[in-house]
Design a protein that fits this description.
Length: about 400
């Protein structure tokens, strides 16, 4: 008996996968990459689930964008017609996925191949792993606890003095408890705090529920330029420059923590600071980061009130409200909240990631502002990267 597919549409992914994919089609169609899966949760053995995970990924590789989905994408004005026409022909290839065990004996999943043809694997693979895990180990879990917690969050927003100013983007696809629960979460937010919900990163639910799909770039985009750019020291500037050429003022939120916020600030000069609408935080202390970015804008003679700071690192509603209280009079703040919305149901969610680890045969890395998030097995390259970007050892 065939197992029911977890992923039923290629739109069931984060928007930034499509926006990055368009850049890859137009600028780097021949780039070759490697992605590596990692489960950061200690004591969890996913090896017994490998066969079911493989079967789910095989079913993912049978999907194509439907005619109605293509019509929807054609109406997203910054997606260009040639890219959408390419998506009409697109299909993921299971041959790009490799399974094994790492040196610790844990489940290893790698995706290797053309960047253009593998970029859409990451988000559904993570969603598949999380849902297969939940199904096997928490099959009888009652979602009433999740519903209770979700209501408490929206009640907190309504009661808070600044609650009406809290702008939320739902970012929870990759680590959701399951697909049905994510839909319930987005529906509840859209019904209960409609004025607070500015959109979702999930393109499928954005289309189904008539809300705005949101997203710009992920770490892999800037990481790839460590191999694609003219010089390593100029990789971030090259990535930002290509982005502005592709989108001409749209999708103007830059990610700041691929090689740490201090190195980003050195590259984010007046030219980029004026071109981009704002920046996104995804590691390190959010308060320290915000103060650094606000001070940087002020030093460049740019009013921080004209810019947007997007916070998206492990947020919950109380922390978002605390950040809002601290900075709402100084700049525009928006919050991308993921796991705490779509996998806060009374059990501990997995901490899983799938990061780009090589591009065009060369190692690439993210040096996070949070300890423990760096993924790179090439210590020599990591040391070189830190030296080039003047990153001090913690």
């Amino acid at each position: 008996m065939a197992v029911q597919p977890i992923i039923k549409s290629l739109l069931d992914t984060d928007l930034y996968k499509l926006t990055m994919m368009q850049v890859v089609l137009h600028h780097f169609p021949a780039a070759e990459v490697e992605y590596t899966f990692k489960c950061r949760t200690e004591g969890v053995d996913l090896v017994p689930l490998a066969t079911e995970i493989q079967d789910q990924i095989r079913q993912l590789c049978e999907l194509r964008f439907t005619e109605n989905e293509i019509h929807y994408l054609n109406n997203i004005y910054y997606l260009k017609s040639d890219f959408v026409q390419f998506l009409k022909l697109f299909q993921l290839d299971f041959n790009n996925v490799q399974f094994g065990r790492d040196e610790a004996g844990q489940l290893e999943i790698k995706v290797v191949g053309s960047w253009l043809h593998t970029i859409l694997f990451e988000v559904p693979i993570l969603a598949i792993v999380e849902e297969v895990y939940a199904k096997h180990y928490h099959a009888q879990h009652d979602l009433k606890e999740g519903q209770k917690r979700l209501k408490e969050k929206t009640d907190l927003i309504k009661k808070h003095p600044l609650g009406s100013q809290l702008k939320i983007m739902e970012f929870g696809t990759r680590r959701r408890f399951n697909r049905k629960w994510q839909k319930q979460v987005v529906e509840h937010l859209n019904r209960s705090v409609e004025d607070n919900l500015v959109g979702t990163s999930n393109v499928y639910f954005a289309r189904e529920l008539g809300i705005t799909p949101l997203g710009t770039m992920a770490h892999e985009y800037l990481q790839a330029f460590q191999a694609l750019g003219p010089r390593l020291i100029d990789s971030q500037k090259a990535a930002l420059d290509i982005w502005t050429k592709e989108y001409r003022g749209d999708l103007g939120i830059a990610l700041t923590d691929v090689v740490g916020v201090d190195a980003f600030i050195r590259d984010f000069d007046r030219y980029f600071a004026k071109l981009f609408d704002g920046v996104r935080h995804d590691s390190g202390c959010p308060f320290e980061w915000a103060r650094k970015m606000i001070a940087h804008y002020e030093a460049l003679g740019i009013d921080p009130k004209t810019k947007t700071l997007v916070f998206s690192d492990g947020l919950d509603i109380p922390l978002a409200l605390e950040i809002l209280t601290e900075f709402n009079k100084v700049t525009n703040v928006v919050f991308g909240i993921g796991t705490n919305l779509t996998n806060d149901v009374g059990i501990k969610p997995l901490s899983i990631v799938m990061k780009m680890t090589r591009c065009n045969g060369q190692p690439v890395a993210k040096i996070s502002d949070s300890p423990g998030k760096t993924m790179c097995k090439d210590e020599a390259y990591l040391s070189y990267l830190k030296n080039v970007f003047q990153i001090e050892e913690a």
